[in-house]
Amino acid sequence: MKPAKLRTYVDLMVAEVEGYFARWGQSGTVDMKQEFEQLVTLIASRCLLGEEVRDKMFGEVSALLRDLNDGMRLLTILFPRLPIPAHRRRDRARARLGEIFSDIVRSRRSSTAGRDGAGARHGDMLQCLIDARYKDGRATTETEVAGMLVAALFAGQHTSSSTSTWTGARLLTNPKHLRAAVEEQARVLRRHGDRVDHDALASMDTLQRCVKETLRLHPPALMLLRHARRSLVRAGDQREYEVPEGHTVASPLLLHNALPQAYRSPGEFDPDRFGAGRGEGGGLAYTAFGGGRHACVGEAFAYMQIKVIWSHLLRNFELQLASPFPETDWTVVMPGPKGKVMLTYNRRKLCKESVLL
Protein backbone atom coordinates (compact mmCIF):
# COMPACT_ATOMS: atom_id res chain seq x y z
CA MET A 1 0.00 0.00 0.00
CA LYS A 2 1.39 3.42 -0.98
CA PRO A 3 2.45 5.71 1.94
CA ALA A 4 0.33 8.59 0.62
CA LYS A 5 -2.78 6.40 0.62
CA LEU A 6 -1.97 5.04 4.07
CA ARG A 7 -1.79 8.58 5.44
CA THR A 8 -5.39 9.19 4.38
CA TYR A 9 -6.54 6.23 6.47
CA VAL A 10 -4.94 7.20 9.78
CA ASP A 11 -7.59 9.76 10.79
CA LEU A 12 -10.31 7.19 10.01
CA MET A 13 -8.52 4.57 12.11
CA VAL A 14 -8.07 6.97 15.03
CA ALA A 15 -11.72 8.02 14.90
CA GLU A 16 -12.93 4.41 14.92
CA VAL A 17 -10.62 3.47 17.81
CA GLU A 18 -11.49 6.50 19.93
CA GLY A 19 -15.19 6.01 19.33
CA TYR A 20 -15.06 2.33 20.15
CA PHE A 21 -13.16 2.63 23.43
CA ALA A 22 -15.22 5.65 24.49
CA ARG A 23 -18.00 3.12 25.08
CA TRP A 24 -15.93 1.32 27.71
CA GLY A 25 -16.70 2.31 31.30
CA GLN A 26 -14.28 3.59 33.92
CA SER A 27 -13.29 0.02 34.69
CA GLY A 28 -14.27 -3.48 33.72
CA THR A 29 -13.30 -6.83 32.27
CA VAL A 30 -13.72 -7.73 28.60
CA ASP A 31 -12.83 -10.51 26.20
CA MET A 32 -9.90 -8.93 24.37
CA LYS A 33 -10.23 -11.27 21.40
CA GLN A 34 -13.90 -10.45 20.85
CA GLU A 35 -13.35 -6.71 21.28
CA PHE A 36 -10.57 -6.64 18.71
CA GLU A 37 -12.53 -8.74 16.24
CA GLN A 38 -15.29 -6.14 16.24
CA LEU A 39 -12.97 -3.14 16.21
CA VAL A 40 -10.68 -4.37 13.44
CA THR A 41 -13.71 -5.20 11.29
CA LEU A 42 -14.97 -1.64 11.73
CA ILE A 43 -11.57 -0.15 10.86
CA ALA A 44 -11.03 -2.29 7.79
CA SER A 45 -14.54 -1.73 6.49
CA ARG A 46 -14.43 2.05 7.00
CA CYS A 47 -10.98 2.49 5.41
CA LEU A 48 -11.19 0.02 2.55
CA LEU A 49 -14.82 -0.64 1.76
CA GLY A 50 -16.69 2.58 2.55
CA GLU A 51 -19.44 3.67 4.89
CA GLU A 52 -22.10 1.37 3.41
CA VAL A 53 -20.12 -1.68 4.53
CA ARG A 54 -18.96 -0.17 7.83
CA ASP A 55 -22.51 0.66 8.89
CA LYS A 56 -23.42 -3.05 8.77
CA MET A 57 -20.40 -4.23 10.76
CA PHE A 58 -21.50 -4.20 14.37
CA GLY A 59 -24.13 -6.85 14.03
CA GLU A 60 -24.59 -9.56 11.50
CA VAL A 61 -21.44 -9.25 9.37
CA SER A 62 -19.05 -9.54 12.30
CA ALA A 63 -20.74 -12.76 13.46
CA LEU A 64 -20.76 -14.14 9.91
CA LEU A 65 -17.02 -13.53 9.54
CA ARG A 66 -16.47 -15.46 12.77
CA ASP A 67 -18.43 -18.42 11.39
CA LEU A 68 -16.44 -18.21 8.17
CA ASN A 69 -13.13 -18.39 10.02
CA ASP A 70 -14.29 -21.22 12.27
CA GLY A 71 -15.14 -23.21 9.17
CA MET A 72 -11.58 -22.97 7.82
CA ARG A 73 -10.03 -25.87 9.70
CA LEU A 74 -7.02 -28.03 8.97
CA LEU A 75 -9.45 -30.79 8.06
CA THR A 76 -10.91 -28.39 5.47
CA ILE A 77 -7.73 -28.52 3.39
CA LEU A 78 -8.24 -32.23 2.67
CA PHE A 79 -12.03 -32.39 2.86
CA PRO A 80 -13.44 -28.93 2.09
CA ARG A 81 -17.04 -30.15 1.78
CA LEU A 82 -17.13 -32.64 4.63
CA PRO A 83 -20.64 -32.37 6.16
CA ILE A 84 -19.65 -31.23 9.64
CA PRO A 85 -21.41 -28.44 11.63
CA ALA A 86 -18.50 -25.98 11.20
CA HIS A 87 -18.64 -26.37 7.41
CA ARG A 88 -22.41 -25.93 7.37
CA ARG A 89 -22.11 -22.71 9.37
CA ARG A 90 -19.29 -21.59 7.06
CA ASP A 91 -21.36 -22.15 3.93
CA ARG A 92 -24.40 -20.37 5.38
CA ALA A 93 -22.21 -17.46 6.43
CA ARG A 94 -20.58 -17.18 3.00
CA ALA A 95 -23.95 -17.22 1.25
CA ARG A 96 -25.36 -14.53 3.55
CA LEU A 97 -22.26 -12.33 3.19
CA GLY A 98 -22.63 -12.62 -0.56
CA GLU A 99 -26.21 -11.37 -0.32
CA ILE A 100 -25.30 -8.44 1.92
CA PHE A 101 -22.35 -7.30 -0.18
CA SER A 102 -24.19 -7.78 -3.47
CA ASP A 103 -26.88 -5.40 -2.18
CA ILE A 104 -24.16 -2.89 -1.24
CA VAL A 105 -22.53 -3.13 -4.68
CA ARG A 106 -25.89 -2.70 -6.39
CA SER A 107 -26.68 0.33 -4.24
CA ARG A 108 -23.29 1.95 -4.88
CA ARG A 109 -23.56 1.39 -8.62
CA SER A 110 -27.02 2.94 -8.81
CA SER A 111 -25.95 5.93 -6.69
CA THR A 112 -22.95 6.71 -8.93
CA ALA A 113 -24.50 5.84 -12.31
CA GLY A 114 -24.42 8.74 -14.73
CA ARG A 115 -22.93 11.17 -12.20
CA ASP A 116 -19.56 12.57 -13.30
CA GLY A 117 -16.93 12.11 -10.62
CA ALA A 118 -19.30 10.33 -8.24
CA GLY A 119 -17.14 7.22 -8.11
CA ALA A 120 -13.96 9.22 -7.63
CA ARG A 121 -15.43 10.92 -4.56
CA HIS A 122 -15.68 7.58 -2.78
CA GLY A 123 -12.04 6.64 -3.42
CA ASP A 124 -12.21 3.34 -1.52
CA MET A 125 -11.43 -0.22 -2.53
CA LEU A 126 -15.12 -0.96 -3.12
CA GLN A 127 -15.27 1.73 -5.78
CA CYS A 128 -12.00 0.52 -7.34
CA LEU A 129 -13.45 -2.96 -7.70
CA ILE A 130 -16.69 -1.62 -9.18
CA ASP A 131 -14.81 0.52 -11.70
CA ALA A 132 -12.28 -2.21 -12.60
CA ARG A 133 -12.22 -3.73 -16.07
CA TYR A 134 -10.76 -7.00 -17.30
CA LYS A 135 -8.27 -7.05 -20.17
CA ASP A 136 -11.08 -7.64 -22.62
CA GLY A 137 -12.95 -4.58 -21.32
CA ARG A 138 -15.59 -6.51 -19.37
CA ALA A 139 -16.77 -4.91 -16.12
CA THR A 140 -16.82 -6.77 -12.82
CA THR A 141 -20.13 -8.31 -11.80
CA GLU A 142 -21.93 -7.85 -8.50
CA THR A 143 -21.09 -11.43 -7.55
CA GLU A 144 -17.39 -10.97 -8.33
CA VAL A 145 -17.10 -7.73 -6.37
CA ALA A 146 -19.01 -9.23 -3.44
CA GLY A 147 -16.65 -12.21 -3.43
CA MET A 148 -13.59 -9.95 -3.38
CA LEU A 149 -15.08 -7.91 -0.53
CA VAL A 150 -15.62 -11.07 1.51
CA ALA A 151 -12.05 -12.19 0.81
CA ALA A 152 -10.58 -8.80 1.77
CA LEU A 153 -12.48 -8.55 5.04
CA PHE A 154 -11.89 -12.19 5.94
CA ALA A 155 -8.14 -12.03 5.30
CA GLY A 156 -7.58 -8.74 7.11
CA GLN A 157 -10.01 -9.02 9.99
CA HIS A 158 -8.88 -12.28 11.53
CA THR A 159 -5.14 -11.78 11.14
CA SER A 160 -5.10 -8.25 12.56
CA SER A 161 -7.49 -8.96 15.43
CA SER A 162 -5.55 -12.10 16.33
CA THR A 163 -2.24 -10.21 16.26
CA SER A 164 -3.73 -7.40 18.37
CA THR A 165 -4.79 -9.98 20.96
CA TRP A 166 -1.41 -11.74 20.97
CA THR A 167 0.35 -8.36 21.27
CA GLY A 168 -1.70 -7.55 24.36
CA ALA A 169 -1.07 -10.94 25.92
CA ARG A 170 2.67 -10.63 25.32
CA LEU A 171 2.98 -7.06 26.59
CA LEU A 172 0.87 -7.67 29.69
CA THR A 173 3.01 -10.65 30.69
CA ASN A 174 6.32 -8.84 30.07
CA PRO A 175 6.49 -5.78 32.39
CA LYS A 176 9.83 -4.54 31.01
CA HIS A 177 8.56 -4.24 27.47
CA LEU A 178 5.15 -2.96 28.58
CA ARG A 179 6.81 -0.12 30.48
CA ALA A 180 9.02 0.70 27.49
CA ALA A 181 5.96 0.85 25.21
CA VAL A 182 4.04 3.10 27.64
CA GLU A 183 6.99 5.45 28.17
CA GLU A 184 7.41 5.73 24.40
CA GLN A 185 3.83 6.99 24.12
CA ALA A 186 4.63 9.92 26.41
CA ARG A 187 7.74 10.84 24.43
CA VAL A 188 6.09 10.57 21.03
CA LEU A 189 2.97 12.51 21.98
CA ARG A 190 5.06 15.33 23.48
CA ARG A 191 6.95 15.66 20.19
CA HIS A 192 3.78 15.60 18.11
CA GLY A 193 1.64 17.99 20.08
CA ASP A 194 -0.53 15.34 21.74
CA ARG A 195 -1.85 14.32 18.31
CA VAL A 196 -1.87 10.78 16.94
CA ASP A 197 -1.25 11.09 13.21
CA HIS A 198 0.72 9.18 10.60
CA ASP A 199 4.05 10.72 11.61
CA ALA A 200 3.47 10.04 15.30
CA LEU A 201 2.59 6.41 14.63
CA ALA A 202 5.58 5.97 12.32
CA SER A 203 7.90 7.12 15.10
CA MET A 204 6.61 4.53 17.62
CA ASP A 205 9.59 2.23 17.10
CA THR A 206 9.21 0.38 20.40
CA LEU A 207 5.58 -0.47 19.71
CA GLN A 208 6.49 -1.47 16.14
CA ARG A 209 9.11 -3.91 17.43
CA CYS A 210 6.65 -5.34 19.97
CA VAL A 211 4.13 -6.07 17.20
CA LYS A 212 6.84 -7.49 14.94
CA GLU A 213 8.13 -9.80 17.68
CA THR A 214 4.56 -10.89 18.42
CA LEU A 215 4.11 -11.81 14.76
CA ARG A 216 7.36 -13.77 14.82
CA LEU A 217 6.12 -15.90 17.72
CA HIS A 218 2.49 -16.02 16.57
CA PRO A 219 2.38 -15.81 12.76
CA PRO A 220 -1.16 -15.54 11.40
CA ALA A 221 -0.76 -18.53 9.07
CA LEU A 222 0.80 -21.97 9.39
CA MET A 223 2.68 -21.88 6.11
CA LEU A 224 3.11 -20.16 2.78
CA LEU A 225 2.48 -22.13 -0.41
CA ARG A 226 4.20 -21.35 -3.71
CA HIS A 227 3.73 -23.04 -7.09
CA ALA A 228 6.98 -23.72 -8.98
CA ARG A 229 6.47 -22.45 -12.54
CA ARG A 230 9.85 -23.90 -13.53
CA SER A 231 12.33 -26.34 -12.00
CA LEU A 232 14.67 -24.84 -9.42
CA VAL A 233 17.82 -26.05 -7.68
CA ARG A 234 18.78 -24.58 -4.33
CA ALA A 235 21.80 -25.29 -2.16
CA GLY A 236 21.22 -26.61 1.35
CA ASP A 237 23.64 -27.15 4.22
CA GLN A 238 25.11 -30.38 2.83
CA ARG A 239 23.39 -31.00 -0.49
CA GLU A 240 21.42 -29.43 -3.30
CA TYR A 241 17.64 -29.62 -3.47
CA GLU A 242 15.59 -29.66 -6.64
CA VAL A 243 12.05 -28.32 -6.84
CA PRO A 244 10.51 -29.82 -10.02
CA GLU A 245 8.32 -27.71 -12.25
CA GLY A 246 4.66 -27.86 -11.25
CA HIS A 247 5.31 -28.84 -7.63
CA THR A 248 4.12 -26.84 -4.62
CA VAL A 249 6.60 -25.58 -2.05
CA ALA A 250 5.39 -25.29 1.55
CA SER A 251 7.24 -22.78 3.70
CA PRO A 252 6.38 -23.18 7.44
CA LEU A 253 6.36 -19.78 9.12
CA LEU A 254 6.84 -21.15 12.62
CA LEU A 255 10.12 -22.80 11.63
CA HIS A 256 11.46 -19.80 9.69
CA ASN A 257 10.64 -17.42 12.53
CA ALA A 258 12.48 -19.54 15.11
CA LEU A 259 15.70 -20.49 13.31
CA PRO A 260 18.43 -20.62 15.99
CA GLN A 261 21.04 -19.40 13.49
CA ALA A 262 18.91 -16.29 12.86
CA TYR A 263 17.61 -15.55 16.37
CA ARG A 264 19.19 -15.51 19.80
CA SER A 265 16.94 -17.44 22.25
CA PRO A 266 14.18 -17.73 19.64
CA GLY A 267 11.54 -18.91 22.12
CA GLU A 268 11.69 -15.71 24.16
CA PHE A 269 9.63 -12.56 23.62
CA ASP A 270 12.36 -10.01 22.95
CA PRO A 271 11.35 -7.04 20.76
CA ASP A 272 14.84 -5.58 21.17
CA ARG A 273 16.16 -8.26 18.82
CA PHE A 274 14.94 -6.01 15.99
CA GLY A 275 16.59 -2.90 17.41
CA ALA A 276 19.77 -1.14 16.32
CA GLY A 277 22.91 -3.17 16.79
CA ARG A 278 21.24 -6.57 16.71
CA GLY A 279 19.21 -6.78 13.52
CA GLU A 280 18.17 -10.41 13.91
CA GLY A 281 15.91 -12.19 11.46
CA GLY A 282 17.07 -10.79 8.16
CA GLY A 283 15.84 -11.96 4.76
CA LEU A 284 13.52 -14.95 4.66
CA ALA A 285 14.21 -15.83 8.29
CA TYR A 286 11.24 -13.54 9.05
CA THR A 287 8.15 -14.41 7.05
CA ALA A 288 5.15 -13.29 9.10
CA PHE A 289 3.92 -11.31 6.06
CA GLY A 290 5.44 -13.58 3.46
CA GLY A 291 8.46 -12.61 1.42
CA GLY A 292 9.90 -12.10 -2.01
CA ARG A 293 7.76 -10.81 -4.87
CA HIS A 294 4.51 -11.91 -3.24
CA ALA A 295 4.79 -10.44 0.24
CA CYS A 296 1.49 -9.29 1.76
CA VAL A 297 0.44 -5.94 0.29
CA GLY A 298 -1.48 -5.14 3.48
CA GLU A 299 1.54 -5.26 5.82
CA ALA A 300 1.84 -1.49 6.34
CA PHE A 301 -1.93 -1.14 6.81
CA ALA A 302 -1.98 -3.97 9.37
CA TYR A 303 0.88 -2.50 11.40
CA MET A 304 -0.73 0.92 11.37
CA GLN A 305 -4.13 -0.19 12.63
CA ILE A 306 -2.63 -2.41 15.36
CA LYS A 307 -0.43 0.50 16.48
CA VAL A 308 -3.42 2.86 16.53
CA ILE A 309 -5.29 0.40 18.78
CA TRP A 310 -2.45 -0.21 21.21
CA SER A 311 -1.29 3.40 21.27
CA HIS A 312 -4.76 4.38 22.47
CA LEU A 313 -4.98 1.60 25.05
CA LEU A 314 -1.51 2.23 26.49
CA ARG A 315 -2.18 5.95 26.86
CA ASN A 316 -5.70 5.75 28.25
CA PHE A 317 -5.97 2.60 30.36
CA GLU A 318 -4.21 0.61 33.04
CA LEU A 319 -4.42 -2.97 31.81
CA GLN A 320 -4.01 -6.43 33.25
CA LEU A 321 -4.40 -9.86 31.70
CA ALA A 322 -7.21 -11.47 33.71
CA SER A 323 -6.86 -14.98 32.29
CA PRO A 324 -3.86 -17.27 31.77
CA PHE A 325 -1.66 -16.64 28.76
CA PRO A 326 -3.72 -18.07 25.87
CA GLU A 327 -2.96 -21.31 24.14
CA THR A 328 -2.90 -21.48 20.35
CA ASP A 329 -5.85 -22.93 18.45
CA TRP A 330 -4.11 -25.29 16.02
CA THR A 331 -7.36 -26.68 14.59
CA VAL A 332 -7.86 -23.81 12.12
CA VAL A 333 -5.93 -22.76 9.03
CA MET A 334 -5.08 -19.36 10.55
CA PRO A 335 -4.24 -20.20 14.18
CA GLY A 336 -5.18 -17.65 16.81
CA PRO A 337 -5.63 -17.47 20.58
CA LYS A 338 -7.79 -20.31 21.88
CA GLY A 339 -10.85 -19.49 23.96
CA LYS A 340 -11.50 -16.20 25.73
CA VAL A 341 -8.64 -13.82 26.53
CA MET A 342 -9.89 -11.69 29.40
CA LEU A 343 -8.60 -8.17 29.98
CA THR A 344 -9.18 -6.03 33.07
CA TYR A 345 -8.98 -2.26 32.50
CA ASN A 346 -9.11 0.97 34.49
CA ARG A 347 -9.36 4.28 32.69
CA ARG A 348 -6.39 6.56 33.35
CA LYS A 349 -6.49 10.15 34.54
CA LEU A 350 -4.15 11.46 31.86
CA CYS A 351 -1.50 14.08 32.39
CA LYS A 352 0.02 15.60 29.27
CA GLU A 353 3.45 15.83 30.86
CA SER A 354 3.79 12.14 31.67
CA VAL A 355 2.24 8.74 31.23
CA LEU A 356 2.91 6.29 34.04
CA LEU A 357 2.14 2.65 34.63
Automatic annotation (TrEMBL):
It comes from the Eukaryota. PROSITE patterns: CYTOCHROME_P450. Gene3D superfamilies: Cytochrome P450. Pfam families: p450 (PF00067). GO terms for molecular function: heme binding; iron ion binding; monooxygenase activity; oxidoreductase activity, acting on paired donors, with incorporation or reduction of molecular oxygen. The keyword Lipid metabolism does not apply. Keywords: Heme, Iron, Metal-binding, Monooxygenase, Oxidoreductase. Heme binds at C296. InterPro entries: CYP450_sterol_14alpha_dmase, Cyt_P450, Cyt_P450_CS, Cyt_P450_E_grp-IV, Cyt_P450_sf. Its cofactor is heme. Belongs to the cytochrome P450 family. This is Cytochrome P450.
